[in-house]
């Protein structure tokens, strides 16, 4: 467990090798006390558990996205087509020079005459 | 070179979904990871979980390993980062705990002979000296003293310049010497 390779002494001047050995020994003891038995097996089990739950989540998400995609797109296109038809219909029934927006909002058409007309509607 | 090739093969096989290849990688780096995590955090029940998280992260990010550095550097970097995360979490939890519930970690010695009591006292002093180091200095001290990495390797693991490793190590060692004083030699 203990590292046996030659130690790089750079920056360690003044620290006795005994202290370094004692720190390594302390960590080895602490590690043996803290780590449960068969750590590799625990890790492998955890990885399997995590990847299983992740793949289940991925499957669920992709299934939901695919199942909702077509109806949402179809409904969206239908609504857009309805709006386009409505706008087209309104623009056909416009007898005087009024834009669709002005018509929908009930505004007077903005023309040169209207701009110079100083009469105001009395509400 | 053979070791490196074997490692590349193992990584390749693990990426292809070979469980045994990844198990071999876990076995190969279990010592380094558990030593680094324990060195950073001290003894405690979280060690198991943090070690586990390091390998789960390795499993997830193995595909992003480009081989610029060694896998050992890659894994130890993850161990340091996960330990720092866990230390911050521990700090938050302790801050929220009522004072009476705070647990004092103490090295366990089952046999209370004189020698063991002495060993236990020595470990307690060393641990409290290491724990008092600021996180950045502690990471350098753990990698240089406990993991026995060279200054160059430490700089690669932490992603900091060579000179920064040396200055943090110098300050860390000075602090350790001040904290420990003559007490260790007396024990």
Question: How would you characterize this protein structure?
Answer:
The complex is a heterodimer of chains A (123) and B (187). With 123 residues, chain A is an all-alpha fold. Chain A is built from four helices and no strands. The mean pLDDT of chain A is 80. Chain B has 187 residues and is mainly α. Chain B has nine helices and no strands. Chain B has helices at 2-15, 19-41, 46-61, 71-96, 114-131, 135-146, 151-158, 162-180, 183-186. In chain B, helix 4 crosses helix 7 (151-158) and helix 5 crosses helix 8 (162-180). Classes of the chains: A mainly alpha (123), B mainly alpha (187). Chain A binds chain B through residues 1, 3, 5, 7-8, 10-12, 14-16, 18-20, 22-24, 26-31, 33-36, 39-40, 42-44, 46-47, 50-51, and chain B through 19, 22-23, 26-27, 30-31, 34-35, 38-39, 42-45, 47-48, 51-52, 55-56, 59, 107-108, 122-123, 126-127, 130, 144-151, 165-166, 169-170, 173, 176-177, 180, 184-185.
List keywords for this structure.
heterodimer, A: 123 residues, mainly alpha, 67% helix, 0% strand, B: 187 residues, Rna Polymerase Sigma Factor, Chain: A, Arc Repressor Mutant, subunit A, 9 helices
